[in-house]
## 1
Amino acid sequence: MKTTIAQVPKYEGQTVTIGAWLANKRSSGKIAFLQLRDGTGFMQGVVVKNDVSEDDFGLAKNMTQETSMYITGTIVEDKRSPFGYEMQVKQIEVIHEAVDYPITPKEHGTEFLMDHRHLWLRSKRQHAVMKIRNEIIRATYQFFNQNGYVKIDPPILTGSSAEGTTELFHTKYFDEEAYLSQSGQLYLEAAAMAFGKVFSFGPTFRAEKSKTRRHLIEFWMIEPEMAFVDHDESLEIQEQYVSFVVQAVLANCQLELAVLERDTTKLKAIKAPFPRISYDDAIELLKKKGFTDIEWGEDFGAPHETAIAESFTKPVFITNYPKDIKAFYMKPDPNREDVVLCADLIAPEGYGEIIGGSQRIDDLALMEQRYKEHNLTGEAYQWYLELRKYGSVPHSGFGLGLERTVAWLSGVEHVRETIPFPRLLNRLYP
């Protein structure tokens, strides 16, 4: 019976064959312990000299790291193992012998590991992070599908930008200027006017020369957009979505969280509703915490977000930022012209902003005024303006950064570990 490591609990007491790689090994006299991996998980294979042929025991003792094989044996329960099962090996068939595998069990520097990212992904820690990423994606589709959203794929090549062109990658689109998308939002607003509730999941690009642990040049965004939904309703959807994803990871990634030694007690508390603090109150809170230089009208940096988050055990919404530091499409607060109906969701434990969202302007005259204030050419944005001309409705949306969310839930320090092949300021390889 050929199976995978993930499936072996179904075959306790039975003999199975698994295609696997050797992650590590140790041997002592007449017994060898093989740490096996097959992509679905990690498991120990125990090779006892008296239970296998002389050739197979020689293979087990001398096999090199990352050698591939078909390995056959009986599945038994092993309560000492986090996985809970191991294989009592009967036969080994080597497929390919790996020689001088560069990532040995010793410590390696980060740059060395990043240069070998194509191999580093095989490690137990990186495997755990990617499995958590996969669960967040799976839960995202489940949440939006079961709540009546339609997935829409916005273009990656665009002729205009959502938030200005200063931090965009420019390219030639035949004889026109084009940009790599920094957000699919504008296109999703058009889709929301056709389908009501939509979401996208795809890559976005920021030509931002930042080296912080929270920034990537290429990252993935989940962007829902909703017709007939106001700002407060959008906040409720955001906290329900984040709560759903966190609980899904806790339920389905217990082994991976254990590998990463993640403190799950903090994650278990992540359930809606989330606390909310206005930008005005956030400024006062920061001043009390020692940020005496911060002035009303300034945007928050990483230290500010971390300081605000320290006052809460759950993610916290910072609402109603000043109009002048936010994007042109955000709807002004009807009670205050100087702030807009927006919110950033700040994750606990210093992981920073994971969601930015707002209610969008739905008034044609006001949007035309914003175009003039932001020097937006009517030609490039004419289609976006027409959304306010033909059946405009109140609508809201938000974007969640996948990699920051993965970093927060898995507890890793830097977002470079949260995407298979990170694109950083100094890295386009591999």
## 2
Amino acid sequence: MNNCDFGDCDSLGPKKKISSVAPPEQSDAESPRMRSSMETDHGANTNNSQKDRIALLVTYLNIVLYALCFQLQRPVEPFLVTSLSTQAGGNSAQVSRTYGQLQSFFNAVQTIGSPLVGILLDRIGIRNASVVVFASTALSYLILAYATDMNLLFLSKVPTVLQAAFLVAQATASTATGGDTAARAQALGRMTTAYTIGATIGPALGGWLADHGDLYFSAKLAVVGSLVSVILSWAFLPTSTFNAKTAKEEEKTVPLTDSLKRSLSIGLRPNVFPLLAVKLVGGAVASIFSTALPLVLTQQLHFDASQLGLGMSASMFSVAGFSAILMAPLAKWIGPDGMVSLGLFGRACMSPVMAMILSWTGTAYSLDSKTMVVVQVTTVSVFHALSAHSLATGLTTQTTGTVDKDEQGALLGLEHSLFSLARIAGPAIGTTLLASKSNNLDGFWLVAGCSAAIDFLLMSFLVLTQRKESSQITKKM
């Protein structure tokens, strides 16, 4: 790129020589016109670039608020389920089963909603889709704030059918960065950093509020935070996404079923399907592990809400620092495919390590040694979270780079739907594995072993797939 691209050609030597040969009338007439045109183009590019930067900054802020509001509930939910189940006469086994059912119901709703939000992005644009998403989120928290029985608790998950704020954020990042792969990877990494900033504060604050006797105040705070995001989205986000003409002239006339078929056809492409398969199966593994671990920590190791929330916050803080500092160098060093392999390997190693710590600790530790137990569990959780983050970012960077801009909304919706689909079965599998042994500590060994084995199988699957693609490319050449 040279200076002409920025409208600074008047300063170049060759330009001056040519203008001195031209007749004065022609030079005087054309020079201002050419300069004006260049300045206009430069101004338009500057305005577009400025709007893109503002959209990204507002999206980062929205994701911080979204994560804060969502994560406020995470350390509270197991205790809320326990409280409401106990009031209804449930025992420990029923509490675990109900908690798993609640997680499965939430992810079933998300599975339905994620493709719808992807279609909304293509049809009504980023701004309107974001407003709808955060308004639905606020409604969910409003119901949760007054959920005094299990029916209302399950009802609070229904509005989350459109709770896909991170999908909207990914669409904004992909739109604002255009075809620049490195910029897209960096923006996606920063988006995750924004999420983890809110997610770092959320669990610790939610646990603290729960320990001080109010299981519902965090949900009331989340209503306010979500409404703030509604206002920010309406005021600052762009009206359209990807290709404005496509969205306005074509998508509005396409039936919903055709849009769903289009998303499915994108997912079945040979260069996309293996990555989505890893996301689907890997999501199930993550769900099994994340459902089982809080139950063991609260029921067997007797963690309270603040200790559980502190561990979650530490993991999120580590991921935020990793995304902000090391994500870009790591992506350049080993590439997105290397990030996926590293993430799978890290998760496969950390799962049995967590099982060993829980087994060695058991319930036979004093109050004085409980701090050390919390530190050990938190440390392993941090490395597990870093591995999962590397896996997720590597997959999304690869998938969004394999399709055209006007297909990214449909692809991201499909990705989120598959991830939620995987988490429908995960909680049930996790609680079943725990219950298959005489106590949850022994059952967690099954959870860890299955999780590690599947992650290693996914690594092998990707290696075989990449070799097959390489051989096909070689034959074509």
